[in-house]
Amino acid sequence: MVTGRGPIERVVRLWLPVGFFLVLALFPFYWMAITSFKPNSELYNRHVMPLVLHHPTLKHYIDLLTQTSFLTWTWNTMLVAVVSTAISLVLGVMLAYPLARMRFAGAGLIAMTVAAIYLVPQPLLFIPLADLINRLGLGNTLTAVILTYPTMLVPFSAWLLLGYFKTVPMELEEAARIDGASRLQTMRRIFLPLCTPGFISAGIFAFTLSQNEFLYALIFLTKTSVRTVPVGVIAELIRGDVFYWGQLMAGALLGSIPVAIIYSFFVEHYVAGLTAGSVKG
Amino acid sequence: MSVRSEPLVGAVRPARRAATLGAWLDRQSVFSWLMMAPPLLFLAALVGYPFCYGILLSLQDRPVAHPGTFVGLKNFATNFNDPIFWRVAFNTFYTAVATLLKMVGGLALALAMNQQFPLKNLVRALLLLPFIVPTVLSTVAWMWILDPAFSVLNWVLVLVGVPKPGPSWLGNPILAMVSIIAINTWRGLPFYGITLLAGLQTVPPELYEAATIDGASGWQRFRYVTLPLLQPIILIVTLFSVIFTFADFQLVYVLTHGGPQNATQLFATYAFDIAMGAGQLGLGASIALTMLPALALLIVALTIYLRRG
To answer: Are residues A21 and A160 in the same domain?
Structure first.
């Protein structure tokens, strides 16, 4: 690319647009954070300049952690995200490995079906699924969401892993086969250990998607003790027309932090996963 | 093997049987189907079955906790005569506006980011935050930004001369839709931007050098080098984005609940209200299924395109 020829041009071409997008992207989080530390007297006073914090307080956090079930919701969210991510990676590998490495009749059709299922949005399925979960007696259990989240995550992980598997050279597997290893041994001992970066990408993605899920959790989990953070925050911190803004913001911030931390550690893998489907595809 | 003496037979046979079983299991088709069977059965049970069951439900009068009765296309006829349903169908135009904004904004973001500058990776990571933070939680922050009484946006607007108390963002039907479009764009734009940035980085620099030597201006380099090379990525990202914007639920449910007066009601939220709120599972399923033709078209197009890539 042509980079700036002078300092002014560099400001106009680079810092102005990048700064604009940064402020736009980050302002809601800044607002979330400072609201959560403001006392109510400051929060609901129109004569105080709102953009900065005058008298910080931890009251909203203390109330959130002692008067609501926020910690239970956090535990539930983590448990569901970890278990459904694990299920999805295992089932995803079982789909992706044969599709990436084996020749058999119907492989193309299966690959297309997996891609198509990945693109089916939840609103198309939630009503029949709600009925199904009820009939199975799984309403208000975490099993309901642990079973249904992988319906989105399995096709997604399979698709992402399929792309990754195809980039791994085949020589090592061929050598193992010549040495007499079975296909299963070759896959487990030789191939899968080579694919850690692919698993991290798919895992991070599946984990953030599970944390983000709302519709199934809203329908299947109606008791405080089984709720996840997004549903708990919406259903229990907004009571009728009363909004507990301080607690809401504290909850939103605390609920975002686990995703943000995991994401910050693996941001390169996340970007690789994000662009894998479209750029190299 | 057959010339071996008697005592050995007993020992060899199981080994041979094991060997043939092993060989059978090692056939590519057998191995593949056995391996894929668990995930495929799982998807058949929890995607395939509900999908077909949803179609059946849409043909039934099915109040929650009661057995259904087959009513043919009556639910679809009910929708056809329902003015709210048509309002919902009209509201899906928001997909077009939001997608256009994300495309143009994302391209601008990608072009701005496709330069060398310090802390570039950190900036990229921060820019993606709206996309990775759970939608419901960031939407709660937006609700507070647009609050009728204490909106910080209106506080700024009043500062620059807008008459007090400023617009009622979520109370006015048009402004509520504007807010939905803006927040949807805010959340989806980084996905466009970062994906297109990855695409830009695959454009060989020689192409720009050659174009510059041929006397192409900055705009011409963009129009005749960058844009044609990005076209496949733009298409894929757009199809993705259209599918998930069209069928979105979370943002509208949390921000406006479809209001005011159904001005922001979408197929997903309306189907939810009818099925979960009013307990009419059959009618709700028929509303959700109205999305199917358009979605099927988009999904088939994208699937074919991804396979070719």
So the answer is: no
